[in-house]
Design brief:
The structure is a single chain. The chain is α+β, with helices and mostly antiparallel strands. The protein contains 10 helices and 4 strands; from the N terminus they run βαβββααααααααα. The chain has a 4-stranded mixed sheet, with helices on one face. β3 and β4 (about 65) form a beta hairpin. The two termini are about 30 Å apart. This is Glutathione S-transferase family protein. InterPro entries: Glutathione-S-Trfase_C_sf, Glutathione_S-Trfase_N, GST_UstS-like_C, Thioredoxin-like_sf.
Length: about 230
């Protein structure tokens, strides 16, 4: 049975942009698994799989239905042990949790201030209303206030990525010589920025840019094809 991944898109289903969904897309490709991606608008998500989740990603694999990107990665690791490992062992799971925390609390906080308006502009009207209300309530600021700080957020992004840059001084990927789920966590954040704004807002010769380009080239450049 085909694996189904429910992901997130705006008015154009060909441009899925959720960072958490991109983690899973890359994990599925890493495992060499065939899957069907079904990008959904924000307001459609609660209507699928009998309302199983209000957020994506959601993965359907036969009788299994899993939400949350990290839980999905752990499921794939356990369900498909003969495919390439996403973690490289139990220690890799623990290390990926640290990367997840860094990405969510440091990298995402800067990126969010850059791309909110871009995401809003990608959405259909019904989703624009939902997105504005929910994000302004969550962040405690209007979109206009957030947009006023966009240039400052872009300027802050290189410093927020310094831990990744430090790692890349010693190895090609977060996972070492080859990518692991820790790479896909951080890749998802920058792919989110790239798809929504058209750029990752870093110099081309930055080690993070070079690593990101290597990730875009993985799996026959499938991620690069989405822009």
């Amino acid at each position: 049975m085909t694996i189904t991944l429910y992901s997130l898109c705006g008015a154009d289903a060909a441009r899925p942009f959720s960072p958490h969904c991109w983690k899973v897309v890359m994990a599925l490709r890493h495992k060499g698994l065939s899957f069907e991606e079904r990008p959904l608008a924000f307001t459609v998500i609660p209507t699928v799989e009998n309302g199983a989740s209000k957020t994506v990603p959601v993965l359907r694999d036969g009788q299994e239905l899993i939400s949350d990107s990290f839980r999905i990665a752990q499921y794939l690791e356990e369900a498909y042990p003969d495919a390439p490992s996403l973690f490289g062992g139990r220690g890799g799971v623990a290390a990926a949790r640290l990367v997840e925390g860094y990405s969510l609390h440091v990298v995402h906080s800067v990126i969010t201030r850059i791309l909110l308006i871009d995401i809003h502009d990608m959405l259909a009207p019904a989703d624009q209303a939902y997105f504005r209300k929910s994000r302004e309530e969550r962040l405690g600021k209007s979109f206009e206030e957030m947009a006023a700080g966009r240039d400052a957020a872009i300027a802050a992004l290189p410093a927020a990525l310094q831990p990744l840059r430090h790692t890349l001084a010693f190895q090609s990927y977060v996972g070492g010589t080859t990518p692991l789920f820790g790479d896909y966590i951080l890749f998802g954040a920058l792919q989110w920025l790239r798809v929504t704004t058209g750029s990752i807002h870093l110099p081309g010769d930055d080690p993070v840019s070079l690593w990101f380009d290597r990730c875009l080239g993985l799996y026959d450049g499938a991620a690069r094809a989405v822009a």
